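Please go through the protein record below and see whether the fold suits the sequence. Record follows.
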Amino acid sequence: MILVAAIGVLAAVLLIAGFEMFMVLGIPALAVKAGFFANLPGLILPQRMTAGINQTLLLAIPFFLFAAQLMGQGQIATRLTDVVRALVGHLRGGIGYTTIGGAMGFGSVSGSAPATVAAMGKILYPELRRVGFRDRFALGLIVSSAETALLIPPSITLIVYGWITGTSIAALFAAGVGVGVILGLACAVLTMIEARRSGVRGDPRAGLAEIASTIRRAGWALGMPVLILGGIYSGLFTPTEAAVMSVVYAIFVEMLIYRSLDLKTLARVAEQAIVQNAVIFLLLAIGTALSYFITLAQIPATLIGFLEEMQVGPVVFLMIVNVAFIIAGMFIDPNSIQLMLVPALYPVAMHLGLDPVHFGMIVAVNIALGMVTPPFGLDLFVASSTLQKPVTEIIAGVWPFLVVNLVVLLLITYVPGLSTLIPDLLL
């Protein structure tokens, strides 16, 4: 327990002092090596870091992120949103439901919440304001609906969890569909209440001919989720191969079919994706080294012994897990949270008899909540940059959705069937 306390205190001090996350993870790893495992060779850190990220599965992350940025710059995101609007836009507050459905649709081809905030915000924020939604609610809805991208496959969060724990990515993706829909429906209920309160009306009902025309215009865009999810669940692609295909498909559609991207824009988007991926993989590499020392020090076994001594069962343990993730999510980015907490907590969860897919959904919902939790939720700042709004305004709009998120989190935590039903049926 001395090692646990040392890592926690040092990481907290570095975080408060304003150090970058790679240093918040890396300096404790170096300190643990020097203080507790000085007999190990000096090359152990770079070796563990290199070996940790030298896995084919992780190639899915840069390709899905690149595809997400391509679609955000092009027309695929807009045309997916047009289909949702044609189907539900006539309902009271229909543009709000369009925002949620559009975020889920974009999430199903990107796996990135920040990319979803940027893409959906530019498209739908002006429309939400035009039809009469309050400014703060519109901001909160855009940010919160993007959380579904962390649950709906191909979720980057679930890929990282599967990499850390060895859980089937296909099973996690299947579970993420159900949990993502639950979160989307919860946001829709809040949207319905707000629409009635603000007197928001829907669009004129689209006729069958208009709906058919919209779907036909979005045919190539709709092909993206079919390609990714259909390829994975039919066994045609692995998740990594599906990620590669998503980039090829996005470039083909945006440049040759929709002609929304040129070579100059493609190069700029590629540069942005490279920088983003470099940051993620640096964190993954350093987190691998820290996880190695956590395992070497038998921290999971120590935690199991402590919980058994205190007679803590699954119900209390999961409450502790949720509190730990919620607090961490206020200050730390999602990948770093997983790298810090999952290696220690996952073995304890398995010892208590929890399903690995169910535990993965609990982690993912907590990560999604952390993306919009003040003061440092990442999506809050992405929305502020995209929409040119003060972060304080966005935080004010997010509070009602945080309550909804907590309700969904409790349901997912204590009703395992919500997470395991679809994987059990499909796999």
